[in-house]
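For reproducibility, we list the full input for the calcium ion complex.
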Amino acid sequence: MPRRRSFKPLDSSQGRFTVAAILCTFALFSALSVGLSVRATEGSHHRATVVQVAARQRTLAERYVQEVLLVRQGQRADPAYTGGVLRDSVVALLHGGTAPAVNGDDDATRLAPFKGARVRAQLEQERRLAADLTATGAAILAGRPARGRLTAHEHVRGGDPMLRLRTLAALTSNVSLNTARSMAAGADKGISDLITMQVALGLAGLLASLGLAWALIAATRRQTAHFRSLVTSSTDLVLVFGEGGVRYVSASVTEMLGRTDHELLGEGLVEQVHGDDRVALETTVAQGTSDGVVFRMCDRFGEWRHLEARVTDLRGDRQVQGVVLNARDISERVRLEEQLTVQAFHDGLTGLANRALFRDRLNQALARSARSPAPLAVLLVDLDGFKQVNDSLGHDAGDHLLLEVGRRFDGVVRPNDTLARLGGDEFALLLDGADGPRATAVADRLLECLLEPIEVADRELTLSASVGVVVHPGGAGDSEVLVRHADVAMYAAKAAGRARWEVFHNEMDREFGEDLGLAQELRVGLQRGEFSLHYQPEVAIDSSALVGVEALLRWQSPSRGNVPPDQFIPVAEDTGLIMPIGEFVLREACEQTAQWRRAGLLPDSFVTWVNLSGKQLSVGGVPTTVHAALEASGLPPEFLGLEVTETAIVEGGAAGERARSELQELHSEGVSLAIDDFGTGFSSLGQLRRFPVDVIKVDRSFIHGVEHDPKDSAIAANLVSLAHALNLVAVAEGIESDGQLTSLRSLGCDLAQGFLFARPAPADVVTQMLADGGPPVPGAPPATAPGRPHTITALPGA
Ligand code: C2E
Ligand code: CA
Ligand code: CA
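The corresponding predicted structure, in tokenized form, follows.
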């Protein structure tokens, strides 16, 4: 596995290594050069001695001849000694050893054997000549004939021994001279070789040092580049402040500000800092505090960037001598925080203030008014008929409408006023300092701005609004009460015929405050368990069998008594309370049905029907609630049916799509679906065919006149045959008389539900009924239920 090299941009050991290498190379070459010189000097000293000894031979040979002549003439001389020195010297030159001293002239000299082949050959010849010379001299002095064969193979003409001696001496002298010359020439060559060598060494040393120096420079450059790229590619902004302002800015700073560093150094940078932040920045730099500082700078696009800087005081550091700011651009974070604040206090759709911000502004205005009494007004605006638009054209169209209304209202108000959307189609307006006349004038303008039609989903719609106005005369006040009074005034405007404003007065509270109170009571009632379910049986018209029940909600209010669902369900829908209430109904109905089932009271294909509000469907999440109820009770989905109205399933837009797919999902799991109040809505045949419905419940209004009114009878007949054509079960709702029952039976209607059979009743009554085999069937053969009353008037829940 290859070893990973670590990245050390600031490692100084690399440079140190190179410097050491350069020094070593220098030392090595110097030592080599000195060594060579020393050796060469020693060699040449020795050679000089050798040359001297060699040159001395010539003199010795000549002196030997003269000494032989002197001895022959009877004078004092010692040729034998001179001859000995001559011979010993040449042997020492040739084979190494000591060259003897010549009387008084010099010292005995130790010599190494000479190496050059040419010189050795010359020395060899010299040795033989010296031997011949001294042999001839000795023969002459001894009076012997000197005629022996010469070892050096010289040819000496004539028999004169003196001539022979002189010739040999001349030869010896000559060879000695040549030898000495050869030796000197060799020494000269050694010196020039030495010079060449020194020059070569010098060059090699220079080259090696240059190479190493280059390596050192390259390494330094690389390090600097690494460091520079680390600093410049870092998104952090680095600034150094010193005497006289900024002394250094990193590339990230110049890039962000779109200026050169010359423009920023000194006082240039501070000019780019937001006026409000300058003092804080300068104080931080002056004190060198390490807490850091946040400041704004104008970037090259003219936008304010928020910078958060850490401060390091390096004024004591000799290399830096300044205060270092390490800054991060936190503009994105700041923007996000601002956005979150906006989201928390503004309506996501229209961008207007939301309920929380409105309340806050109202409280502030009231506090001001309490300090120095000044009037203020609150206007509450509710769009008339917005729900129908939303239901029929879909939520997208509804949203578009709200946006346009918000835009128009915004055009009416002054910058000091607070316009808010409180939710749904409800807007609120706070007019600080406004008295009654001004408030109603603004209300007029709000109504006027809606007169021009709004284009939504290729249609032109004209909406009106009901405006409730409340005027606070000044002094202390309660925002809660003010808003409630505006609400009451708004209800009054609706009650007075919509498309108008009403100013709150105290009698109104008694009249309309009740409606508002109802919502509050519903909320509390739900928590206190004031709601319960009654169940109304559903029977097969021909076999009289009990095939199911419809769960109907009952509210027993401690203050109002029994409140009919027609009264409180619309309020629950308006306030969103229908969601928890709907959940309660599903849970309760499933639990009760599961109990009946566990008790073995339920016939095959029995279904408990639960009413779903259109609001529940448009909000979504119905399957989740249904699944939870089924799971909690352990009831199989086949025992549950959902009743929805036509309008709920034909709704357009994304919400309508989702509602249909949620119902389809539940249907595929086994939950039955019925269309309630059929005939009163506008469902098209096409939609009915595509939607997985099992049951159609023909509305009570058609059943009412089926016996006597030919029109009702015709419609009922049509609805029944329509159901059958679509392969659906037809149920007649609200059968109260035998005549109605007979008519429907003759129309072929499958199931029936109505007071004629049973009124909605509490669970225990139905339990009894199930145990008895169902309610009595009116008009059935007497054998089935002889003498029993046609309606069960004694039922407690009726
Ligand atoms: P609906 O779904 O059409 O329920 C049938 C209504 O007709 C019930 O009124 C029932 O008491 C009444 N009814 C049954 N047989 C007869 C009859 O022979 N003659 C007459 N005159 N009326 C008969 P109720 O219980 O007052 O409910 C009124 C409406 O309130 C229901 O109409 C339904 O739309 C709504 N509702 C009731 N319970 C719930 C519920 O749990 N959730 C939702 N979303 N709506 C509910
Ligand atoms: Ca129903
Ligand atoms: Ca109905």
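Confidence is low (pLDDT under 50) at residues 780-798. Residues 422 and 587 are 32 Å apart (CA to CA). Both points were considered when choosing residues for closer inspection.
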